[in-house]
Amino acid sequence: MNLILFGPPGSGKGTQAKRLVDERGMVQLSTGDMLRAAIASGSEIGLRTKDIIARGDLVPDEIVIALIEERLPEAEAAGGAIFDGFPRTVAQAEALDAMLARRGAKIDTVVRLLVDDEALLRRITGRFEEQGRPDDNPESFKTRLGAYNAQTAPLLPYYEAQGKIRSVDGMGSPDEVSKAIRESLETVAA
Ligand code: B4P
């Protein structure tokens, strides 16, 4: 199964993706994690994207599409992927569909995590205090939320038209959200 975890910054995508990996043995493909690893290693991609990410803007489509394409064989070998933080634009979604189609695969479902803006800000502020991630400061968070509303939310009609969205209440504890995701996935054919 190929699944997208969809939601605004702080909605719990990364948290829930890791839990799904433990439960289902799929591969987590998080473009955020890949970009942070590139920054930590000082690679060319890291150098090109460091300031963009710290500001809270989206990095160019071609960079994240290439990062995902590189990891697709691994996902195929594992029997499926959890896309976490990708796609974030319609161009990325179209590229993903094309890359999967070339491998005889497709996106099976999109799990949309519903969390209100106040809770998002609370979570991101909490992580900033705990981990000091540079893009978790309140100013960058505002930019990230703006990017989500302007560039990522338009993906909803794209996947709605394909009947693939399953909306899940993301306001509860991580355990409660995991349970709701598990229930919503029971109806998806593997
Ligand atoms: P990401 O790493 O994807 O950042 P994110 O949207 O904040 O998600 P994250 O997984 O970190 O947070 P989560 O919701 O799990 O991207 C970072 C940046 O990279 C982007 O801003 C962009 O610049 C760039 N980028 C990445 N992908 C890109 C793409 N495809 N195209 C262009 N640019 C891209 O959780 C946040 C916090 O909430 C955590 O502290 C967690 O502990 C807490 N939390 C989670 N679930 C909770 C719950 N149920 N209750 C309470 N707290 C909870």
Automatic annotation (TrEMBL):
Alphabetized GO MF terms: AMP kinase activity; ATP binding
Binding-site positions, AMP: 31, 36, 57-59, 85-88, 92, 133, 144
Pfam families per record: ADK
GO cellular component, one term: cytoplasm
Family according to the record: Belongs to the adenylate kinase family.
Gene3D superfamilies named among the record's database cross-references: P-loop containing nucleotide triphosphate hydrolases
HAMAP family cross-referenced by the UniProt entry: Adenylate_kinase_Adk
Record-given protein name: Adenylate kinase
